[in-house]
Amino acid sequence: LWNIARFVLIQLERRAFDASAPLTAVADRWLMTRLSGTVSEVTACMDGCQFDRALRAIREFAWDVLADNYIELVKGRLYSDEPGRDSACRALTRTLDTLCRLMAPFTPHFAEECYSYLGRGSVHFAGWPVCEYDDPDAARDGDLLALVVADIRRYKHERGMALNAPLGKVTIFSPLFGDDSGDAARALNAEVVWRRETARLEKVMGDVQFNMAVIGPAFRKQARAFMDAVRALPPESLENPPDSIEVDGTAMPLPKDAFFPTYTYMEEGEKVDVLNVGDVIVTIQHTA
Q: Same domain, yes or no, for 95 and 109?
């Protein structure tokens, strides 16, 4: 939690910001809805003497919502001099203030140390936090934004790409949401386009992948001839394999799961990778 607080404080002190700036970005309003829910949950747990559940709720918000998602989303705005920085700084100030108050009964010295940097006196005289922020649209859209960005960051990691490496063009097809104030583009280092219409993708059969754990024991020395015979099959037989296949002039039973065709997708004439994020389709067109 100290690393989170230190990052936030560094950003707040880097340059003056308008503390009364409106919360305009979806990510900022989403953070406030999640913070409001956390305050309600922790308050109920404390009233019921369920202190372990209260502390768990604080930890889940601090790590899962604030550190893993929100901060990663808005780093680009925080590092910039754009007007949207004020909105993010205001959201982070409110969040750090509230977290210090929530943590005070559990870690009084730590909470006091963090709170002192906000210049608001002692956290132990600040009172229990009240945060009633209700924005159903921001809650829904922010959940989607965080999920999409997290999945694409995972996609980059699985392909051995640095998380800040240029990605190309990302198109997100969502009928409900279309403006993230540029947060996704900055977080992914990509051109990000939100589109409300349904994705129109062309599915094209590519190569064939073979399961050597099945092919090896079944065909042994004829494995290479089997693979050549499979590659010679027409596309409809690759999608719906026959019961047998001719290998070196002999009809042989086709083992289950011996191979499967791979597919590529085309969007407006360009090859793309496709991710399914819940009910949302995301296409990724890499740079040349």
A: yes
- What mean pLDDT is predicted for residues 170-188? 90
Fill in the amino acid letter for 75.
K
In a domain, 118, yes or no: yes
Torsion (CA) 131, 133, 134, 138 in degrees, nearest 10:
-130
Instruction: Examine residue 84 and state whether it is found in any structural domain, yes or no.
Output: yes
Give the Å distances, CA to CA, from 260 to 125, 207, 213, 235, 278: 66, 9, 13, 11, 25
- R_g of the chain computed on alpha carbons: 26
The answer to the question of residue 262 being in a domain is: no
Mark which of 82, 115, 134 sits at the end of a domain.
134
Which pLDDT does position 287 carry in this prediction? 73
Mean pLDDT (whole number) for 84-112: 95
Residue 117 has φ and ψ, to the nearest 5°, of: -75, -15
Task: Specify the number of domains making up the chain.
Answer: 3
Rounded to two decimals, the pTM is 0.83
